[in-house]
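Need tokens for this chain, all 462 residues.
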Amino acid sequence: MQPYELSLAAAADAIRAQELSPVELVGSVLDRIEKVEPRLEAYVTVTAEQARRAAREAEQDVAAGGLRGPLHGIPMGLKDLIDVAGAATTASSRVRADHRAEADSTVAARLTAAGAVLIGKTHTHEFAYGLTTPQTNNAWDTGRVAGGSSGGSAVAVAAGTATFALGTDTGGSIRVPSALNGVVGLKPTYGLVPRHGVTSLSWSLDHVGPITRTVEDAALVLDALAGYDPRDPASLAASAAHHRPGGSTDLTGLRVGVPSNYYFDHVDPEVEATVRRAIDRLESLGARLVDVEIPMTRYIQATQWGLMVPEATAYHERTLRAVPELYQADVRILLEAGELMPAGDYLRAQRSRTLMRQAWARVLDDVDVIAAPTVPATAVKADQNTLTWSDGTVEGVSDAYVRLSAPASITGVPSLSVPVGHDTAGLPIGMQLLGRPLGEPVLLRVGHAYEQTQPAREPATV
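Here are the structure tokens for all 462 residues:
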């Protein structure tokens, strides 16, 4: 096994034991980038020289007994919405051509303090406003979409061109590309991970979280990210818990909610069968399956768009008027549409979200986690715009991809996407686990237990 193929936890153990040097690990990842990046286009920019320099410093620190923790010397990619001092934050947009960040975002500063090594900035759907990341190719089939908007981060982790990465999630933008590329994606509880220094899409829906190879890896990154920051008005004063799951696969007494509506409607049969098999596996580990009804489903799409569209338009108001021609057409149209939305519709969406949060809290009183598909279909071909379901319903690809991930973004509950298999075309399928606010330790425990019962995942076939 090459160093670039190692999970974060395995690489951290090897670095701690001085069996692997950060210089070797970073070199292996950079060699991998040279080999596969031309086919994938996961990165906006690769910071190879700075990464090699940081790796040498990490190697010296470790040799001198100054290991900072499990992220020390580990190569990471950061979605290019996340400020790193002195570097451009392009948001994969021509609008940001001359941009330079003056200071680190909170998450970049925390990861740097933990010793992580920045490999580069990863592509996003322009300003995170989309579900496909069209400039990046899927790690399993380069003729298919990466998923979005954190497509570059998910593809980099899947292909071994980053050991872990950060994404952002406003309607599903961490979990969708993670599911489509066969990696783990965690959207934490709203407010758990600070967003200061991260370009906003929709302030009341935006989250930052890790994309990793394993559930344990996600826990290790979350430990470095979580914690209060007064510069983010939504930041929670919750203490940063220790999230790393133990080794036990015993889920006796755990109640897993299985949705009787919404989450299995208009879902590809292979995706449904694979996710239901994974849910049965949780039952075999001792969990008790409980039927749950998802509340207020007819309002989910309207609430998601009713919040996101006007907030995004407000954020882009000045540049949309000054340089509209620099935006890609799909994003510009959405931003212009936001100018036509009445304030009353936005306020109704806020009321709807409040009622939805309350209704979800009641459902989560009766179960510990809810298990469901992350996305209703695997990665579509790059030129495909719609999906046709068995009853003849035609759905836009972006609408389909956001449909099952939006509820956790609207309500702010944590959601973990875990790979659970492949379809007959060899494309990855993801299951999401949803929990109570600040219920990350439970989600990570369940996801890790499931993962322990599976054979080691093969890397992407790029």
